[in-house]
Amino acid sequence: MKLALLSDIHANIHALDACLAHARQAGCDRFALLGDLVGYGGDPVPVMERVIALANDGAVVLKGNHDALAVTPPAQSQQMGDSTAQWTHEQLSAEQRGFLDALPMTATVGACFLVHASADAPEKWRYVEDERSAGVSLDAALTHPGIRYVFGGHVHHQTLYYKGSGRGLMAFKPTAGVAIPTPAHRQWIATVGSVGQPRDGQPTAMYALFDLAQARLSFLRVPYDHAAAAASVRRAGLPEYFAKRLEEGR
């Protein structure tokens, strides 16, 4: 089975559709959406329509921190990311908000543990951004029987760590489009990047494809119409900052 791992869509329908089409062409058998379906972007309604259709077809869908904010917006914006929560809440239907509210924090698919942020208290939305935090998340996931792989998002970068012969984790720098052997005799943790808001200076969308039978993981970049996505943000009257981020990939 080939499992497509998509995270941090952030209401960007242009990037989502591009990644879905790319994954299907690559032979994807199942989708897993690792949270932050909405927030920041200008198209939460079509994104939720697409996501709910995928869930009805058997996709795994998890809750992210921006999904929780869209259900219950803060009374006052404390951070830049909070600023679109009330607007997103108002765009979504009651059914769509109910779908987001009911989403689980984690899921398992075979030997894979799926989570938006860190596996050690997913509801605290901790970032997996270095060897230490990756080790904490991996150790928490490994308390579940049979787990060898942990996949998450939240950090908007594509990273891979594995447990070598010592006790610590080793970082591996992936190259987009190059399949990485990830044998199950080791333990692995990856962040799959952001579909809808990449932040590494490249505006191309990110996702990952995991071949469970071959134990090979590919980190992928997909061109999409980021100018149209930025235009959607401006048309919605959302902060200009979020449109610029899409244009610049930052």
Keyword list:
globular; six-stranded mixed sheet; alpha/beta; 250 residues; 12 strands
Distance between the termini: 33 Å
Mean pLDDT: 95
> Using only CA atoms, what is the Rg?
17 Å
Read across the widest sheet, the strand sequence of neighbours is 3-2-1-11-12-9
Helical content band:
25-40%
**Biggest sheet: strands, sense, closure?**
6 strands, mixed
Structural class, please?
alpha/beta
Multimerization state: single chain
Strand content: 15-25%
Shape: globular
Report on the architecture of this protein.
By secondary structure, this protein is α/β, with parallel strands linked by helices. Helices cover 31% and strands 22% of the residues. The chain has helices spanning 13-25, 44-56, 65-71, 85-91, 94-101, 131-141, 226-235, 240-248, and strands at residues 2-6, 30-33, 60-61, 106-109, 112-115, 149-152, 158-163, 169-172, 180-181, 187-192, 205-211, 216-222. Helix 3 (65-71) crosses helix 4 and helix 3 packs across helix 5 (94-101). The longest helix is centred in the first third of the chain and has 13 residues, at 13-25.
Produce the secondary structure layout:
Blueprint: E1 2-6, H1 13-25, E2 30-33, H2 44-56, E3 60-61, H3 65-71, H4 85-91, H5 94-101, E4 106-109, E5 112-115, H6 131-141, E6 149-152, E7 158-163, E8 169-172, E9 180-181, E10 187-192, E11 205-211, E12 216-222, H7 226-235, H8 240-248
Parallel strand pairs: 1-2, 2-3, 5-6, 6-10
Antiparallel strand pairs: 1-11, 4-5, 7-8, 7-10, 9-12, 11-12
Helix pairs in contact: 3-4, 3-5, 7-8
